Amino acid sequence: MHPFEWDIEGNVVLALPGFARLFGLPPDEPLTYQAAVARIHPDDRARVDAAYQEAVRTRRTYEQEYRVVLPDGAIRCILARGEVVFDDEERPRVLAGVVLDITRRKEAELALAQREAELSDSERRFRVLADAMPQMVWTTLPDGHYDYFNQRWYDFTGVPEGSTYDDKWAALFHPDDRDRLWARWRHSLRTGEPYEIECRLRHRSGEYHWVLGRALPLWNEHGAIERWFGTCTDIHDLKQAQEALAKNEEFTSRLLSSTDDCITVLDLEGRLRFMNEGGMRVMEVGDFRAIEGSHWSRFWSGPTALQAMDAIEAACAGGTGRFQGVCPTLAGTPKWWDVLVTSIKGPDGRPERLLWISRDVTERKRAEDRIAETLERYRLAARATNDVIWDWNALTDHVLWNEAMQAVFGYAPEEVEPSRQWWMDHIRPEDRDRVEREIRAAIDGPSSHVALEYRFQKADGSYAVVFDRGFLLRDPNGDAVRAIGAMFDITERKRLEDQQALISRELHHRIKNTLTMAQALISSTARHARTIAEFQQAVSARITLLAKTQELLIERDRCGASIRDILKFEMEPYDGKAEQRLRFDGPDVRLPSEPAVTFAMAVHELTTNAVKYGALSIPTGHVDVDWSVEVRRGKRKLTFEWRERDGPPVRKPDRQGFGSVLLKRVLARQLDGEVEMDFAPDGLKVRIAATLPDRPVPPR
Q1: Kind plus residue range of the DSSP H or E element containing 562
Q2: For residues 433 and 186, what is the distance between their CA atoms, to the nearest angstrom?
Q3: 633 phi and psi angles, rounded to 5 deg
Q4: Which residue has the higher pLDDT, 580 or 206?
Q5: pLDDT(581) > 60
Q6: Phi, psi (rounded to 5 degrees) for 662
Q7: Residue 558's pLDDT band (boundaries 50, 70, 90)?
């Protein structure tokens, strides 16, 4: 909390240094209202100013929440409260108040909203199960605000669906029960204790029926209540049975036989004296006489037995005991029971017997367990995968992402906006229209699947190639209301595919060129050999050198290669010993493996063209190669020059061949340089200007 005073007339803000740090302002400079307002998010400034003007006009407390944009672009959420102080002439003089950093609270609210959205699918299943239950099921938010009633509630009360939210449900209860009901509910909301009450609820017939209302809180891992789950059970028949029991046990027995609840009567010592027919069915009791007089402890064990004992003690004292636990039937079938124990009072008002009512809630417990298991399975599956999973609500345009968004693309959770527009904005502009069209076609079409390939911007600004596959959920009208899918980063696969295509093209081209070079090599050797043995030896040596060059291109030695070695491997087979047709001059410069391979390919193309059409195609031709390195602006700059002379006249080719493409595009891009080609009549000239790595590659 940071107090401040703004002198409106002097336009000076008096505050502790923490106030300036909160707004990202220099702590050693005078604070002004304009400097603080300049930090407020542009979308919030008009609202903040309007609130201040309203406070001046009405003299009410000024209170606003707004966002502050820090110099590094970070967003901080602020809560400001203050009072405008007026002078004797009713002029506003000072705005005094405090500001609080509520960023964490806002982030927590956003995380909670995201979590609730993730649970929406499980909640849909929960609602299906809840509608199948015989009880009236309802849920509330932590503050007690009702947000769900199952169909059984509306069937029982006969009111229109959705009409009992915002505390309107209270009007359905008997006026004599409302104060007691509200007091008990507020107590549970305040303490977190389970809620339980018997009261009268208006039936659709207009009559009031007794119901048993119960609610339990759902606690999160931080010890806070996330939601209340409650039920209203129609116990009207049970209430009538209790009243009739005092008058006529025979009538009570016939009445109780119509329910599937296990209704038993115990004496004050806890021994069985009566069990209704429905109870005998659910407890799988063939003959009640076999268990009549048995103590209740025969059927319960473990922690549940202690709960049963507490419930009996409460009933013996004139109150009501309630618990849930597992107890097998007489045939050994394990079941969950919801147990209510109350006293049957005599004419003197003191308990004479105990009424023990057990309802089989096994299916309900299984449904609750399935819901919890589904939620946990979905949470673990989303965290375990390395794929970026997304969940888009087409009605609200809200998008949820799993944690892989940070691991794969580098975005922290607070950097990801939960909207489809943020998603589209991070698709490469060249791909965006196509992606929009394909998504719209999938939504408007009959298919439930959509598969896309596009480039997605990562947090560092680079683009990843992704394969995006999704599944559309449609409503009964066939309209898409939701889509769930996963994004796979296939950048490396695409790079390998492109590299494979280039290698395939080069291999095809190189096979043809190799055959041409071999033919030229043999012809050149034959012209100078004086004997067959000399011819055989020279051809063998030059073919070996040619093979070494091919090995350099294929293996891509990780240690790189020197420019001089590349030239020797490629060109020495064409250098006559007597004529000295080749000249190399330059320092020892080594290139990393990938640029070295490309450079060797370029030299190979230049050599092949010289052998086919240029200076090396006739015995009198020569090739001069010079290179140098100099440091400019902290960068090592390479200049490489290839000059052919004394060859046949040169004519500029009609089309650009593979060698020209390799030089001007691939080599220039890899070495961050430029390539110039001059098809002069007296001989081809090639000049390459490139940037070398900061650290030279160590020699092998």
Answers
A1: strand 561-562
A2: 55
A3: 55, 40
A4: 206
A5: yes
A6: -60, -45
A7: very low
Residue 160 DSSP one-character state:
P
The whole-angstrom distance between residue 558's C-alpha and the CA centroid of its chain comes to 39
How many CB atoms are closer than 10 A to CB 627?
18
Cα separation, 400 vs 388, whole angstroms: 10
Two structure tokens written together for 244 = 């009739």
Whether 264 contacts 358, CB under 8 Å: yes
DSSP string, 103-149: HHHHHHHHHHHHHHHHTHHHHHHHHHHHHHSSSEEEEE-TTS-EEEE
* Other beta carbons less than 10 A from residue 641's beta carbon: 17
SS3 476: coil
Of 283, 236, 307, 335, nearest to 274 (Cα)? 283
Residue pLDDT, tens place only, 469-488: 888 988 888 888 899 888 88
Q: Give dist(CA 524, CA 50) in Å, integer.
A: 91
Taking a C-beta distance cutoff of 8 angstroms, is the pair 178, 201 a contact?
Answer: no
> What is the residue-wise DSSP string for 374-393?
HHHHHHHHHHH-SSEEEEEE
- What are the backbone dihedrals phi and psi of residue 75, each rounded to the nearest 5 degrees, phi first? -110, 130
Residue 562 and residue 247: Cα distance in Å, rounded? 111
Q: How far apart are CA 539 and CA 522, in angstroms?
A: 6
Instruction: Check residue 262 and give its pLDDT.
Output: 86
Amino acid present at 229: F
- C-alpha 35/C-alpha 29 separation (Å) is 10
Q: How far is CA 27 from CA 3, 86, 292, 497, in A?
A: 15, 28, 84, 56
Q: Which conformational region is residue 634 in: left (phi greater than 0), alpha (psi within -120 to 50 degrees), or beta?
A: left
State which amino acid sits at residue 368: E
As a whole number of Å, the CA-based R_g of the chain is: 43
Q: What are the pLDDT digits (tens) for 327-373? A: 888 888 888 889 999 988 888 888 889 988 888 888 888 887 777 77
User: Distance between CA 570 and CA 542 in Å, rounded?
Assistant: 10
Q: Is 131 in contact with 367 (CB distance < 8 Å)?
A: no
Q: Which two tokens stand for residue 669?
A: 């891009």
- Phi first, then psi, for residue 11 (nearest 5°) are 55, 45
Would you call 525 exposed, middle or buried from its count of C-beta atoms within 10 A (0-12, 13-18, 19+)?
buried
pLDDT in tens, 662-676: 677 666 676 777 888
Two structure tokens written together for 290: 């076999």
Using left for φ > 0, alpha for ψ between -120 and 50, and beta otherwise, residue 267 falls in beta
- Token reading at 616: 């090396």
Report yes or no: 341 and 333 within 8 Å, Cβ to Cβ. Answer: no
pLDDT value for 625: 95
Question: What is the arrangement of strands in the sheet containing 195-202, beginning at the earlier edge strand?
Answer: 146-149, 136-140, 225-234, 208-219, 195-202
pTM here?
A: 0.31
